[in-house]
Structure formats: structure tokens, C-alpha cells
Design brief:
The complex is a heterodimer of chains A (249) and B (308). Helices cover 29% and strands 31% of the residues of chain A. Chain A is of the alpha/beta class and 249 residues long. In chain A, helix 3 crosses helix 4. Chain A starts with a strand and ends with a helix. In chain B, helix 3 packs across helix 4 and helix 5 runs parallel beside helix 8. Chain B is globular. The chains are: A alpha/beta (249), B alpha/beta (308). The structure holds flavin-adenine dinucleotide and adenosine monophosphate (AMP).
């Protein structure tokens, strides 16, 4: 089975994000970038399935600027076989991402698409579910376990009250939750090997996809700041403050 | 304007986020219809009919909506979408699962997790784990929106809406629901609790969570956790508070043995009062705390419980 995995280049999750003073967005110049953590989990899942013999080829797809090639190379160093970059200069919103993924699926005909549950920059949590809708495929969002059984897959999903088990027909779209696996570190020899793997660059127009944003960002601001708190000396003082000052207990 | 709110429920009761979503709908302004879809959920529809401000309740009671199957739910709502200017659902695991699917079927760019309504086409939503707030305007004909419950008060009771049956849509047959394993607890639900006691990696083990549970029981509080505590297997995944877990804003949030990573703060920093207990005087959690105590939790927590 061929698997398509999507990877997004985002600001490193451990960088403190700063809002630009003109309110147009967040500062991205000279900021450390990384693969979206949920996409790392998606790549890791595909690689494990290939190691187990259920997957024959892993294609990784990113939509973004030329720099997203780096993210694709990282995915290939983890074990993906080849990469596709759909080059877009500006912002690409989830519906447009889903349309691009569908166009690539039509071309590549994978038996499974694995995506992250959420991009940690826009925090949209939409692309996987949208892709499944456009393809008319089943979806398993927020997946923490997946086992392929011929023409279907048994999945466990994280839901608000606990866990849910489903059987989904293949082909399908799966989005990853944190506990699906722990991604491996890339090694230097694998980074070298990844440089030689094929990487195709396409334009959305060539796929017949309109990626124009539907949401206009009017402004981006800092969240409201909390007022400074106080240090208490011991539990007695803490309980006193909660009772008499904050009046919450 | 006609607004459709999709209720989250357990068949009998509505889940906490639903009434907050009705308040968001009321801020947009227009007639509000609530859809209750599920299996054996007539009772939940009656509860929905009593929410203040709701004009009509649609009840779609059929086996194919068990577990909130995204494929079938999205198809059902797609069938009635043309009647509405806005379609809203809570931004919970339930809403996040099927709403984007619906949006794509309607060729609409969903607006996720709104925390404020500016006008019928303009909304505020957190991005970058709540480190920035974006004001966005939609050009789509129908607005498909998920609502962050902590941004809106819960709508009260007092309505007397009519309940109408809605014929079930097609069963796509794409997925088969097998089971749900729900964590059982006598404590309040995280997203509805007035007080939350949360533990982090500092708790050291699942067994040690007992001291937090004792405190929670004295306070009538829910128990939450950081991702590190969940990943270490101390507590189940549905305890996780944060960017990728639950978003909570109780009146009192007590963080114990939690360092205060950005991703954790994203889920609790809108709580009314925050207290933190941590032995590290430099712990970043103190920056958002109203009161903080630098002490070993194994000493402080039992003392706290005893003092109540
Ligand atoms: C994509 C992504 C998403 C994430 N989503 C989330 C999320 O939703 N929620 C979340 O919580 N995290 C999330 N994280 C993880 C987050 O970055 C942190 O790793 C995590 O929150 C740390 O948990 P912690 O504070 O319990 O552990 P630590 O950072 O290890 O902190 C433990 C704290 O306990 C204190 N401590 C230890 N022993 C004691 C003692 N005896 N008495 C008192 N204090 C003690 C220590 O001083 C320390 O401050 C995410 C990370 C990524 C990359
Ligand atoms: N520009 C992109 N390129 C590749 N994959 C993407 C892109 N945007 C989103 N995705 C995928 O969709 C997932 C969910 O993103 P989102 O719906 O934006 O939160 C991500 O984890 C990625 O796997």
C-alpha cells in the first residue's frame, strides 16, 4: 500500500511567538522553524508501517514556500521515500490545503493519507477532516492507534470522555494525536541519504486548485495580560487569600 | 439571519459547551435552531428546547449517528445547510471532528475556535496556542464556526421551543462504530467544573494523584493534568489540559507540579483565579498565577486539604 503523509513547516513549538507591532501577524523573520509536531507523528507512523511490511511507499507532501523543502527533507531522513512540494508564496488556509491534498491523491492514488490533527501555528484542526470530505473517504481524526486489516483499518480515537474504537473502510484519511507514537530522531547518515531522494515541485495552478484565502485577517493582537500575582509564604496564607481576597473557596 | 447550533449531548443531557455556543449564536443575532442528532436522544432534545433564546429544536434520532459519526453527521447537516446563514458547534472533540467535514462539503473555510463575535462575519480566534488573537472576516456565504466555550457565558433556561423530527440522512457506511471507553468519575467534568486541580510530571506517579484527588474532593473540583503527566501514564488522556487537550476557564485553577509550558498555559490561562504550587522558584507557571507557593507538593497538598 502507498501512503501519503502531509507535513507543514511551522514556527518551532518551543519558540516564544511575538506579535508584530503593526498588528499584521506574528514575527517570522529569523525565527527557528520546525516540522509541525503532529506531522512528525504522521511520518513516524508511516515509517513504522513500512518497517512492518504493510506499507510499500511513503510520499510526503508539503504546501508552502521553497523553504518547506527542508521539512520534506527531514521527513525523508525519517524514512519517507519521496517528496512533493506544492509551492505557494502566501497564506494557505485549510480548505485550500485539503483541495491540494485531494489533487495529489487523485494523481498518486494512495491507500491511506496520514495528516497531523492540528497545525500548531493556525491551530485550525481542519485539514484532515476536510480532505476526507472532498475525497468522499472515511476519516479517523485524533487517532491514537491504527491497525490495517486488508480493506479496512481498526482505529482508536481520542475523544473528550476517553477513547473511541471504529472500523474504517480504506482508503481513508487519518489524523494523528500525540499518543500515536514517539517520532524518531533523524541521524546524520539518513540526512545525507535524504538529499538524494526525489523531490518534485509543483504549482497549484498546474493541479487546477484555487488556493485564494477565504478568511481575511483584519488584525493580530497580543492576548490580554494577566495582572501580576503574589507569592505566598505557606499554605495557611494561601487558604486565607483564597477565602478572603479571591473569595473562590 | 437563521442560525443552526449543533448540540453535543449524551442522549439525555446536553454537554457543557452547547449552551455557550447558543450564547455565541445570540451575539451574532438571528433565529436560533438547535439540532440534536444521535441515537436515543429525544430527552436531550427536550432539554435543548428549554434553553433561553432557542426558537426550534430539530431531532434526528437514528442508529447511524452513534458516537457522533462524522461522515453521517456532516451529510445530515449538509442537507439542511442552505436554510442557514451560520452553522455553529462547540469546539470540543465532538465538534472538531465533523464540522470541518461539513465545511468542506459546503466549500466553506471554517472559522475554528472563536472566542468573540465582532459582527456577523467577523470573529476573534486564538492562534499560536493563544499567544496571539486574530480578528478574521469570512467571505463565505454560510459561516461554519466552532465555538470556544470559555469565551461565552452559558445560556440559561427559560425557552419553550418546538421540537420537530428531522428525517435521518443517508448512512454513508464508511465507518463502523465499535465502542467507547469513557473514563468514569464522580467528580465534575473538566470543562464544566467551577474548580480544577491539575497535576503535572511533578506528581511522580499515578498513585500520587490520590493526594490531588483528596484535595479535589474537599473542593468539589475536577482533576486535570499536563501532557507530561498523561504521557507518563499517571492519568488517562482525557485529563489533559492545554493547546491540544481541553480548554478550561474555571473560577479556580490549581496547578500542582506543573512547570507552565506555553502549550499548557494555552488551555487554562483564562481561568478567573490561578494558583500554582511548585518547588522551583523560577517555574514559568508563576507568571500567570494570582497566588503561588514555592514548596514541595507532597508537603503542601496534604496541608492544603487538611486546612479546608
Ligand atoms: C505540539 C505540542 C502540544 C502540546 N500540548 C500540550 C497540552 O495540550 N497540554 C500540556 O500540558 N502540554 C502540552 N505539551 C507539552 C508541553 O510542552 C510540556 O512538555 C508539558 O506541559 C510539561 O508538563 P509538566 O509541566 O507536567 O512537566 P515538567 O515541565 O517536567 O514540569 C514538572 C514541574 O514539577 C515541578 N516539581 C517536581 N517535583 C515537585 C515536587 N515534589 N513539588 C513541587 N513541584 C515539583 C518541577 O519544578 C517542574 O516545574 C505539548 C507539546 C507539544 C510539542
Ligand atoms: N501547508 C501545509 N502543507 C502540508 N500539510 C499541511 C499544511 N497545512 C496543514 N497541513 C496538514 O494538516 C494538518 C492539520 O492542519 P490544520 O487543519 O491547519 O490545523 C497538519 O498537521 C498537516 O499535516
Amino acid at each position: 500500500m502507498k501512503v501519503l503523509v502531509t507535513v507543514k513547516r511551522v514556527i518551532d513549538p518551543y519558540v516564544k511567538v511575538r506579535v508584530k507591532s503593526d498588528g499584521s501577524g506574528v514575527e517570522t523573520a529569523n525565527v527557528k522553524m520546525a516540522m509541525n509536531p503532529f506531522c512528525e507523528i504522521a511520518v513516524e507512523q508511516a515509517v513504522r508501517m513500512k518497517e512492518a511490511g504493510t506499507v510499500t511507499e511513503i510520499v510526503v507532501l508539503s504546501i508552502g514556500t521553497t523553504q518547506s523543502q527542508e521539512t520534506l527533507r527531514t521527513a525523508m531522513a525519517m524514512g519517507a521515500d519521496r517528496g512533493i512540494l506544492v509551492e505557494v508564496a502566501g497564506e494557505v488556509q485549510p480548505l485550500a490545503v485539503a483541495k491540494v491534498v485531494k489533487a495529489i491523491v487523485d494523481k498518486e492514488q494512495p491507500g491511506l493519507v496520514i495528516m497531523g490533527k492540528q497545525a500548531i501555528d493556525d491551530d485550525s484542526n481542519q485539514c484532515g477532516q476536510m480532505t476526507a470530505a472532498l475525497l468522499g473517504w472515511p476519516q479517523s481524526a485524533f487517532t491514537s492507534e491504527i491497525a490495517i486489516n486488508g480493506a479496512s483499518a481498526d482505529v482508536t480515537r481520542e475523544i473528550d470522555g476517553g477513547l473511541e474504537k471504529l472500523t474504517i473502510k480504506l482508503p481513508a484519511v487519518v489524523t494523528t494525536d500525540l499518543r500515536l507514537n514517539e517520532p524518531r530522531y533523524v541521524t546524520l547518515p539518513n540526512i545525507m541519504k535524504a538529499k538524494k531522494k526525489p523531490l518534485e515541485v509543483l504549482k497549484p495552478e498546474a493541479l487546477g486548485v484555487d488556493v485564494a484565502p477565504r478568511l481575511k485577517t483584519l488584525k493580530v493582537e497580543e492576548p490580554a495580560k494577566r495582572s501580576a500575582g503574589v507569592k505566598v509564604a505557606d499554605v495557611a496564607e494561601l487558604v486565607g487569600k483564597l477565602k478572603n481576597e479571591a473569595r473562590v473557596i | 439571519m437563521a442560525i443552526l447550533v449543533i448540540a453535543e449531548h449524551d442522549g439525555k443531557q446536553l454537554k457543557p459547551g452547547t449552551t455557550n455556543t447558543v450564547t455565541a449564536a445570540a451575539k451574532i443575532g438571528g433565529d436560533i435552531t438547535v439540532l440534536v442528532a444521535g441515537t436515543g436522544c429525544a430527552e436531550a432534545a427536550q432539554v435543548a428546547a428549554k434553553i433561553a433564546g432557542v426558537q426550534k429544536v430539530l431531532l434526528a434520532d437514528s442508529a447511524q449517528y452513534a458516537g457522533g459519526a462524522a461522515e453521517n453527521l456532516a451529510a445530515l447537516v449538509q442537507g439542511i445547510a442552505a436554510q442557514y446563514s451560520h452553522i455553529l458547534a462547540p469546539a470540543t472533540g465532538y465538534g472538531k471532528n465533523f464540522m470541518p467535514r461539513l465545511a468542506a462539503l459546503l466549500d466553506v473555510q471554517q472559522i475554528s475556535d472563536i472566542s468573540a463575535v465582532v459582527s456577523p462575519d467577523t470573529f476573534v480566534r486564538p492562534i499560536y496556542a493563544g499567544n496571539a488573537m486574530a480578528t478574521v472576516q469570512s467571505v463565505d456565504k454560510v459561516k461554519v464556526i466552532t465555538v470556544r466555550a470559555t469565551g461565552f457565558d452559558a445560556a440559561g433556561e427559560g425557552g419553550s421551543a418546538v421540537v420537530e423530527n428531522l428525517a435521518a440522512g443517508a448512512d454513508t457506511g464508511l465507518t463502523t462504530f465499535k465502542s467507547q471507553e469513557l473514563s468514569k468519575s464522580d467528580r465534575p467534568e473538566l470543562t464544566a467544573a467551577r474548580i480544577i486541580v491539575s497535576g503535572g510530571r511533578g506528581m511522580g506517579s499515578g498513585d500520587n494523584f490520590k493526594i490531588l484527588e483528596a484535595l479535589a474532593d474537599k473542593l468539589g473540583a475536577a482533576v486535570g493534568a499536563s501532557r507530561a503527566a498523561v504521557d507518563s501514564g499517571f492519568v488517562p488522556n482525557d485529563y489533559q489540559v492545554g493547546q491540544t487537550g481541553k480548554i478550561v476557564a474555571p473560577e479556580l485553577y490549581i496547578a500542582v507540579g506543573i512547570s507552565g509550558a506555553i502549550q499548557h498555559l494555552a488551555g487554562m490561562k483564562d481561568s478567573k483565579v490561578i494558583i500554582a504550587i511548585n518547588k522551583d522558584p523560577e517555574a514559568p507557571i508563576f507568571a500567570v498565577a494570582d497566588y503561588w507557593l514555592v514548596e514541595d507538593l507532597f508537603k503542601a497538598v496534604p496541608e492544603f486539604t487538611a486546612a479546608l
